[in-house]
DNA sequence: TTTGAGATTTAGGGCCATCTAACCCTAAAT
DNA sequence: ATTTAGGGTTAGATGGCCCTAAATCTCAAA
C-alpha cells in the first residue's frame, strides 16, 4: 500500500520538522536520504497526491496528519527495535541504528506489539529519544535544547543523542556522552566546537558543531542561574 | 548486490529441488512465487547471467553452487527467525512463517549470529526443518519420507511439517500433528486423503493429499517390519 | 511419424525509484 | 528595479520487476 521508500521520505520529513519549525526543503530531504533533488521532487508529487504532505511548489513541504501518523509508526518501529536489540540481543548502543533502519519497514503490527511487551512498553529508546506511543498521537516537543545553545561553564545533563551514525555514536559512547550523563562545558571554540568534561569519566570530549547539534541536553543542577 | 526478489527465486528453486531431483521448471517457480511464467523466464535469464543457476532452455534450471549458497543463507535466516520468534517472542508455531518471510532478507550477518547465539546454535526450526549451518555447506537429504508413502496400520513419527501456510499449520497444530508426535495411519482414501490418529490427543486427523505431502515422517517403533 | 496440447520464451508495455541535463523560480544583493 | 546565485522542477533515460499477447518449442498420444 505504501512503499518502504515512501515511508523513508515521510520519516525523513518528520525528523527534519522536529528540528526547524519551517517548511522542509527539497534539498534537505535529498541530503537526509542521500538522493538527488529531482528524485525528491517526484516523490513529493506522489506523496502530495496521496495526501501525506502539504506542498507549496518551490517552498517545501509539511506533513499532513496522515503523513505524520505514518512517520510516527515508522519511528515507533525504529526505536522499539533499537531498544529490543540492545536489551535482548546484546547489541551495543552505537550499532543498533542501521539494523533498525533495515528492519523497521518489515515488521508486522503483531511483532511490534510483542516487542513492546517484551520491553515493558518503553517510552524512550537507548539514545534517549522518545518512542511514539501505540496510538500514534503526536508527542509534544521535548524541552531539551541542543548543547550548542549553552556556554562555557554551564553544567548540563544529556537527554538525547540523535542516532545518526555509528562512528559518531561510538566516539560519544567511548567518551562517556550518553543519556543521563552530566557534562560541564569547558570551552566553546569560535568555529563552534564544544569541549565538555564528563563528571563520571574524568576526561573531556570535543564535539564539532555538526555533532554537538545532535546532543540534546537540559540545564544541570549545579549552576542554577 | 543481490535483490530481495532474486533471493526469493533462489530460495524457491532450492526448496523445489529438495522435493524432486529433477530440473526445476519455469511453471513450478511461477506457482511457488505467484508470478507469471514470462516473469520467471526473464528472472532466470538474469540469474543465469550472474552464475546462480544452470539453465537449459525449455528444460528448467538447477542451482549452481553459488546459487545454492545464497539459498542456504536465506533459508538459514528464515529458520533461525522462526525459532527465535517462537522461543523468545511468544509466537505460535503456526504464525511465524510470514513474519520470517518478510524479515529474512533484511537482517545482517551480525543479527544472524546474535540470534543463533541466543538460541544456542539450533539445528532444527519449530517445524522440524533443518537449519543450514553457518558455513552454508549443503546438508544431506533428511531420510524421512512423506506420510503419503505409508499405508493403513503403519505407525510413524512426525519429523517435519513444511511451513507453507498458517491456516494449514494451525489446523495441524490443533489436531496434534507436530514434530515428535507419533501417528497411526488409520485410513488411506482412494483419492489420497490420509486419516491418522495421534497417540497423545485421542483424536484423529484427516489430511488431504496436498497437505499430507508436506508432512515428513519416519517409521515408528511399534510396528517394525 | 505426425500432430496438437501444454509449457516456455519472446515481444512489448507499465510502474517505481533513481539518475543527469536543462530549464525555471525565488530571494537577496546591488 | 534588476540582476544573479542557488535551489527547485521538468524532461527524458535507466534498471528492476511485473504483466499480457503472441510465437515457439517439447513430448506424448494417435
From TrEMBL, chains A, B:
One of its GO terms (cellular component) is cytoplasm. Residues 2-64 form the HTH dtxR-type domain. Homodimer. InterPro entries: DtxR_MntR_Metal-Reg (IPR050536), Fe-transptr_FeoA-like (IPR007167), Fe_dep_repressor (IPR001367), Fe_dep_repressor_sf (IPR036421), FeoA_core_dom (IPR038157), HTH_DTXR (IPR022687), HTH_MarR-typ (IPR000835), Iron_dep_repressor (IPR022689). GO terms for molecular function: DNA binding; DNA-binding transcription factor activity; protein dimerization activity; transition metal ion binding. Transmembrane segments: none annotated. It comes from the Archaea. Residues 120-149 are annotated as: Disordered. Residues 138-148 have a biased composition (Basic and acidic residues). Keywords: DNA-binding, Iron, Transcription, Transcription regulation. This is Iron (Metal) dependent repressor, DtxR family. Its main location: cytoplasm. Belongs to the DtxR/MntR family. It comes from Natronorubrum texcoconense.
Amino acid at each position: 500500500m505504501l512503499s518502504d521508500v515512501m515511508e523513508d521520505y515521510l520519516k525523513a520529513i518528520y525528523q527534519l520538522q522536529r528540528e526547524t519549525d519551517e517548511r522542509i526543503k527539497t534539498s534537505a530531504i535529498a541530503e537526509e536520504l542521500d538522493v538527488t533533488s529531482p528524485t525528491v521532487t517526484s516523490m513529493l508529487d506522489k506523496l502530495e497526491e496521496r495526501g501525506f504532505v502539504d506542498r507549496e511548489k518551490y517552498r517545501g513541504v509539511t506533513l499532513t496528519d496522515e503523513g505524520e501518523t505514518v512517520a510516527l509508526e515508522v519511528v515507533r518501529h525504529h526505536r522499539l527495535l533499537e531498544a529490543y536489540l540492545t536489551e535482548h540481543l546484546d547489541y551495543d548502543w552505537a550499532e543498533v541504528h542501521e539494523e533498525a533502519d533495515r528492519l523497521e519497514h518489515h515488521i508486522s503490527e503483531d511483532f511490534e506489539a510483542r516487542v513492546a511487551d517484551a520491553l515493558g512498553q518503553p517510552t524512550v529508546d537507548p539514545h534517549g529519544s522518545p518512542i511514539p506511543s501505540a496510538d500514534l498521537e503526536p508527542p509534544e516537543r521535548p524541552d531539551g535544547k541542543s548543547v550548542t545553545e549553552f556556554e562555557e561553564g554551564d553544567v548540563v545533563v544529556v537527554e538525547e543523542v540523535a542516532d545518526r551514525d555509528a562512528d559518531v555514536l561510538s566516539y560519544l559512547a567511548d567518551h562517556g556522552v550518553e543519556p543521563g550523563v552530566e557534562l560541564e562545558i569547558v570551552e566553546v571554540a569560535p568555529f563552534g566546537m564544544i569541549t565538555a568534561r564528563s563528571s563520571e569519566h574524568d576526561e573531556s570530549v570535543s564535539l564539532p558543531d555538526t555533532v554537538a547539534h545532535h546532543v540534546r541536553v537540559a540545564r544541570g543542577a549545579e549552576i542554577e542561574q
